[in-house]
Amino acid sequence: MDTMTVLGAILDAGLEDVAAFAVHDPEAVQTMIAAGVGATVTVALGGKMDMPSIGLRGEPREVTGTVKTISLGQYRNRGPASKGLLMDMGPSVVLDTGKVEIVVISRQTEPNDLACFLSLGIDPVAKKYLMLKSRVHYRAGFKPIAKQVIECAGTGVCTSDYDQLTFKNVRRPIYPLDLINDPI
Predict the structure, then answer these.
(1) Distance (Å) of CA 123 to CA 15, 108, 131
(2) Residue pLDDT, tens place only, 113-155
(3) Is 172 within the bounds of a domain?
């Protein structure tokens, strides 16, 4: 999924007290590291990859904020999932728009543990809203603190809406692409 679809909706809605994990954009990370903590920057965030298999071009989002945190991006999961496992997001930055704290990472990492935020100085329990780029793995670490979970279908090649995708070289019928009525 292109994280920028959902993040853009959050920014456009004017939601406040949000932490977003994560936009994978090594180029933007380097720009913000060069600017330094406390600098106000405007970056073309995310959307750097085209998605030709679904006929879409990447669309970066221009975002202005303050570089709040710069990190090497390593932390250990607290659990319950993969407790003690060393995670590596690569050089990472928190960009604070005043309403949304956006984690921008250099190495793709699945947010399955509160430590992904805590390691960057963000307390996810204290936030009103969390945006996680995760389809399933977030549940063990984040569901216990969630009052509600809203799953979003963003734009991208990892969609769960299979009608958006063109399948070739697939034996048909096959579930879930085709509804199979089995009389059993």
Answers:
(1) 17, 21, 13
(2) 999 999 999 999 999 999 998 878 888 899 999 999 988 877 7
(3) no
- pTM, entire model: 0.89
Tokens (6 digits) for 120: 């960057």
Domain, as residue range, for 125: 3-158
Q: Which residue has tokens 């994990």?
A: 21
Instruction: Please report whether residue 178 resides in a domain.
Output: no
Q: Are 1 and 159 in contact (CB under 8 A)?
A: yes
Beta bridge partners of 101: 19, 96
Q: What is the pLDDT of residues 52-87, one digit of tens each?
A: 878 888 889 999 999 999 999 999 999 998 999 999
Residue 177 lies in a domain: no
Structure tokens at 176: 């879930």
How many domains does the chain fold into?
Answer: 1
Whether residue 66 lies inside any domain: the answer is yes
